[in-house]
Each structure stands twice: as C-alpha cells, then as structure tokens.
Amino acid sequence: MRLKNLIHSSNKKKVNSIYLDYAASTPVAPDVLETMLPYFKERFGNPGSIHSFGQSAQGALDKSREIITDALGAKFSEVIFTSSATEANNLVLRGIIASANIKNPQIIISSIEHESILDTVKALEKEGVEVVYLPVSSEGLVNPDDVIKNIKDNTILVSIIYASNEIGTIQPIKEISNLIRNFRGSKTYPLFHTDAVQALQFLDCRVEELGIDLMTMSSQKIYGPKGAGALFVKGLEPKGSNKLKSIITGGGQEYNLRSGTENVPAIVGFAKALELIEKNKSIEAKRIKQLRNHLWERLKIMKPELELNGPDVDSSSRLENNLNIYFPGHEAQDLVIKLDMAGVSVSTGSACSSRSTKASYVVKALDLGEDRAKSSLRISLGRPSTLSEVDKAYEEILNLL
C-alpha cells in the first residue's frame, strides 16, 4: 500500500524528467522511425502473400535479415525474428528440450540471468528438467571452470547472460565457449546460449568470435521499436533446425521456428537501429562511460558511504552505461519514487520486475547481504544523456540523502 501511495503521488507531481533508465528501454531513433513509416502505410503488405505488396514486404524482411546477420558475422538463414527477447529465450529453453529427446535433461544457467530465463527454467523444473544455478562472485562474475564441472551426459544447454541488465557485469563468454567446445568435441550437446540484449549496443557480438550456438537480441534496447526480438541459431537452414522445435505453430514462418505474420515495420526498424549502432559503437561507448564515471565520482566524493554493485567503473567487465549503487539506510523503492517526483527516472533493476517490492535477486546473488539488495538503485545512461542531465541528477540524488 505504501508503494502504491508513493506511485500515486509521483503521478500527480510531474516535472521535466531526466531519463536515466536506458537499460529498461530506449526511445526510437528518428532515422529508425523514418525507415519504419512506409511499412505502416503504403508498404503494408503481408510478406506471406505472393502479390507485389507481399513481395515488397518480404523484400524488406530479407534486407533486414541481411543487415543483422552481416553485423553478427552470421549466415543469412541463421537469424529468426520474434516478438521480443523474452520469446526468443523461451524458444531456446523450451525448443531445445523438445528437440533433444533426452531423458531428464539438464540445463546450466547463472544465478543472475534475466527473468525470462530464470522463470522459464523454474517452470521446466516442475516438468522434470534438472537445472543447475551457478553462483557468481561478489562482482557478479561466473567462474568458467564451474560451468565445466557441472556438465554431465544429460546436459543439453548452458545459458549465460552476456552482460547483466541490473549490475552491468560482462561475463567471459569467449572463455566459457572455448571450454564448452573443447569439452563437447564432436557431440551435439551441450549447446551454448547467451542473452546479449544489453551487450548488443556496446560489445562485440560477432558470433564466430564469441563461439556461441545461440544468441538472443532485442530491438528496444538499441533505439529500435518494441515488438521485435531476434535469435541467432548456429547452422540454421531454411528447411528448419534439428536443434530447436517451435513453441508457436501455425503458418511456418521464420524457417518453421516462429509461426505468425512477421512484424515488418518493427523488424525494419530493428535492422536500421543496429546499423546505426554499429557505425558509432566505440565512440558512443567512450562518451557514455565518461558521463557515467563523472556521476559516480561526484557521488562518491560527497557520499563516501555509497558502494558500487558489480565490477569497478574502470573495469573491462562492466558495461559502459551502467551504475548500480548501494545506498545504506535508504529503501530503493522510496528513492525511485522520490527521484521521479524530482524529475529523475531511475530504477531498482529489471523493468520486468520493477513493480515488485522484493529485493533484487541479482544483488542478493552477490552474497553481500539482504539489506544491500533492498537499498540499491540502477542508473543507466544512453545516447540522449548529457553532462547537464548527469549533473542535475547528481544534485537531486544528493538532496535525498
């Protein structure tokens, strides 16, 4: 009830907002929107139709797939489109189990995966799937050796998030993939999947470099529209996959792995957004990191009791746009609402569970105490972020402490 009252008060008192929750969602870039608009109007055809309207839409899909696979260094047929990253993650988990036909299959994940992985494997556990939850260090890092130690004959999948949506920790995906491939040899399993939703904007996501078998992506995190996700599937051919079974049946779209009319405007926007990201990735990452570090340094000078969750800001194991800060003696939910009333939008963690009053399971997994998990805020910067916004946010945060 207390949280509802605070939210109600926040909704009544709105000022010009400074948005610092880009890990939750990003605005659609102007060039992206412009690219999408024709597919809402004159080029509205169904890509499954054989007439000219349909062929125009199919051509747009093909071009979008080409742009995305080129950016990933993948084959044209190795990427399928979904409605979201959550759907893509569900397809990986449920689709591999359905395809593997192994008795009592095992899945290995980290304890700080996104809810779309965690909640799905919990549901699968009730169906007889064995799940191993790997611990992480106090900075949120998985020990690659722990992955190999837990692989058994019935292990069909290892899924490790590339970069944490809450604390920004970047996992050693290449090292883990090398160990898995050496262990696997000529066998099919275990396959290796990574959720690269947060990583796509800042990190190298070329699939051969990473050595992964499957990778999840999202449009809305890279200044593209909501309603478009994608899944890389190594070795996927137009006739389908022997590694995955569809969890949505119907018209056989997306190489029979994801039935349903494709969301052409959103997919076109996704491809354009990724194209723009790739052009300025290193420059933008450097700029955002400087702003992020500036904010943290100012806060730490004035409030030395504040502590960072995850790797140090200068560590190569932390996303450039992420801060996750422990505010001793303050309830994170209260701070979020009060900052919102002051015109600064931040969060306690994943937007998928932000309405929950529970402590962050990701921060809890760092084994630094329950209080820390309840008193930590995530601040995530983005392309529109400016120095003046960061300084204003600093002032408003300081006013509440």
UniProtKB/TrEMBL annotation:
Per the record's keyword annotation, is Mitochondrion included, yes or no? no
- For this protein, the Enzyme Commission number is 2.8.1.7
The protein's UniProt keywords, in alphabetical order, are: Iron, Iron-sulfur, Metal-binding, Pyridoxal phosphate, Transferase
> InterPro entries, alphabetically?
Aminotrans_V_dom, Aminotrans_V_PyrdxlP_BS, Cysteine_dSase, PyrdxlP-dep_Trfase, PyrdxlP-dep_Trfase_major, PyrdxlP-dep_Trfase_small
Cross-referenced Pfam families: Aminotran_5
Q: Which reaction does it catalyse?
A: (sulfur carrier)-H + L-cysteine = (sulfur carrier)-SH + L-alanine
Task: Name the domain of life.
Answer: Bacteria
One GO MF term: iron-sulfur cluster binding
Q: Which cofactors go with this protein?
A: pyridoxal 5'-phosphate
According to the entry, every stretch annotated as the Aminotransferase class V domain falls at 18-392
To which protein family does this belong? Answer: Belongs to the class-V pyridoxal-phosphate-dependent aminotransferase family. NifS/IscS subfamily.
State the name under which the record lists this protein: cysteine desulfurase
What is the protein's species of origin? Candidatus Colwellbacteria bacterium RIFCSPLOWO2_12_FULL_43_11
